[in-house]
Write a structure and sequence with these properties.
7-stranded mixed sheet; alpha/beta; 7 strands; Rossmann fold; about 240 residues
């Protein structure tokens, strides 16, 4: 089993995650689909099922990466909406901006480089914040939750889908073998950079915050109506919370 020491300090982890997701951006989408057997698309749809697309959206997609969630929001939003994707990685944003040229969107989509713990937006700017398979990557979740509730409008929603440790011992045994053995083997085939990235992803799941603790932290920040739905034998959780 490959282990890696993941920094816990804000600056250190931000730099670490930035390095982990550099030089993997061109294969990211295709390998994600392969590694999840295309279930990632269903997980994103589950998260976005809580979005009311009949109204104008002002949505912020945090840790947007190559824009998988961002572009899905744009495709389903109405013409008066506005979508912003935010990420720390310039490499990922470069792919997202390139993909924007061929994306089908009903509204403007902009991309911003920043961290979720210090958002460059005014109070009450968005009615939805989404995070797709990246909540584990934030160094200071409390700071990010505080920034999220600040920039959300009244009754706005925070929505996340992410990998977690399953409750079932048997499922965790099989899943641990998959993420620590099978995925790094695939990574070695792809490139040296992907091997390191997949080892990090496996370890980040190993130490991921349980859904109940995430909901508690959201409530301590000021959110209400928190919910957590486990999917796919409990390896993924869909989390929602309202301002």
């Amino acid at each position: 089993m490959s282990r890696v020491e993941i920094p816990t300090g804000f600056v250190e982890k931000a730099k670490f995650v930035l390095g982990i997701f550099t030089d993997v951006e061109t294969e990211y989408d295709s390998l994600l689909h392969l590694m999840t057997l295309h279930f990632d698309s269903a997980w994103r749809r589950k998260m976005l099922s809580r979005v009311n697309f009949s109204n104008e959206l002002k949505a912020l997609d945090l840790a947007c990466g190559t824009g998988l969630v961002t572009f899905e929001l744009g495709r389903r939003a109405n013409a008066g909406s506005m979508i912003v994707g935010l990420d720390l990685s310039p490499a990922m944003l470069r792919i997202a901006r390139r993909n924007r040229l061929k994306a089908r969107s009903n509204c403007p989509i902009e991309f911003v480089r920043a961290v979720g713990e210090s958002l460059p937006f005014r109070d009450d700017s968005f009615n939805y914040i989404t995070i797709g398979l990246a909540l584990r990557n934030f160094a200071d979740k409390l700071a990010m939750f505080r920034e999220s509730i600040r920039v959300l409008t009244r009754s706005g929603w925070f929505l996340s889908i992410d990998f977690v440790r399953p409750d079932s011992t048997l499922v965790w045994f099989l899943y641990r073998f998959h993420i620590f053995r099978v995925l790094p083997a695939l990574g070695r085939i792809a490139s040296t950079h992907w091997k390191e990235t997949l080892i990090y992803l496996a370890n980040s799941i190993l130490i991921s915050m349980p859904p109940a603790e995430t909901c508690k932290l959201l409530e301590e920040t000021g959110f209400r109506s928190t919910l957590a739905d486990r999917l796919s034998l409990g390896i993924v959780v869909s989390i929602g919370a309202q301002k």
